Amino acid sequence: MIKGYAAEQAGGELKPFEYDPGELRPGQVEIAVETCGICHSDLSMLDNEWGMSAYPFMPGHEVSGRIAAIGEGVSHLTVGQRVGLGWYTHSCMTCHQCMSGDHNLCSSAEQTIVGRHGGFADKVRCHAEWALPIPEGVDPKKAGPLFCGGITVFNPIIQMGVLPTSRVGVVGIGGLGHMALRFLNAWGCEVVAFTSSESKMEEAKRLGAHRCVRSRSEEAIAAENGSLDFILVTANATLPWDAYIAALAPRGRLHIVGAVLEPIPTHVFPLLIGQKSLSASPLGSPANTAKMLDFCSRHGIAPDCEFFPMSKVNDAMEHLKSGKARYRIVLENDF
């Protein structure tokens, strides 16, 4: 039996829950959970904001732990090896996207907390391609958030061709944005933080920003007009989109990784005359996640974390909901 915490209904309290996962299938591994980060996506799924949650619902997709069991056909992992697991738990391994290395774009990819139970538990299962070894130099207690929030902001740096010479803006200095600042600073970029919180201005500089701009002030954003090669939007709020597009340099890109639920109204002409782009992306492939982990190890990068025992999961979720988290919350298994 696997023990964890699940809710019986949308927005419900997470209560002790047990389930029988059945036989470990070929290609799968079972991970003994040591820590599990809490992502805002866990809260969105708990509340069924995206209309795809199934109950009982057990959140948790930022797992750090050790391999407890290995299914038939898995040869590259060993029992006891420390690994992490993020949003994806399986991809088909045969489609064009998987065969091209874009497993995160697989049309039949399975998600860790969609239609299955996640990592707010003593154990969790996944297919072996998504259980990634945690290298020496990465703090395993803080590793979990890298497998969702971390790769979400690291992947575009690689795939969108951000260069060390690039001037980059990061909009929203929270669970995603604070990691983006650290990555981009270590990447060599000139980094501009856009935040609506005056209290985060100095924090943003500590995290890697070279300067800060008020994110909802069109006048302040206008001072950046034509200067930024890449703007990464980590916030999930409605923003003055035309102002950010104007801040882009020619051939600049406005890239969104925050789950903005409202439509994004904008005009084509400013995009056209500056050959600018508007894009978005989901997390990253196993290969890019491994590359991110190596980068973290090399540069000593880790998320800022607050720790709760897993038995206090409801307090931890409320702390996230209140907006007080600085900047990622991690549950420690105390079963």
Can you describe this structure in just a few lines?
With 335 residues, this protein is an alpha/beta fold.
Can you characterise this structure?
This protein has 335 residues and is α/β, with parallel strands linked by helices. It has two domains: 2-148 and 284-332, Medium-chain alcohol dehydrogenases, catalytic domain (Quinone Oxidoreductase, Chain A, domain 1, Alpha-Beta Complex), CATH 3.90.180; 151-280, Rossmann fold. Helices cover 26% and strands 27% of the residues. The protein is built from eleven helices and 17 strands. The protein has helices spanning 40-46, 96-99, 140-143, 149-159, 177-187, 201-207, 218-222, 241-247, 268-274, 286-299, 313-321, and strands at residues 2-6, 15-19, 28-38, 63-70, 82-85, 88-90, 110-111, 123-127, 132-133, 167-171, 190-195, 211-214, 228-233, 248-256, 277-280, 305-309, 328-332. The strands form four sheets. Strands 3, 4, 5, 8, 9, 16 and 17 form a seven-stranded mixed β-sheet that branches. The protein has a six-stranded parallel β-sheet with strand order 12-11-10-13-14-15. It has a two-stranded antiparallel sheet with strand order 1-2. α5 (177-187) links the parallel β10 (167-171) and β11 (190-195). α4 packs across α5. It is globular. The model has no long low-confidence stretch (mean pLDDT 96).
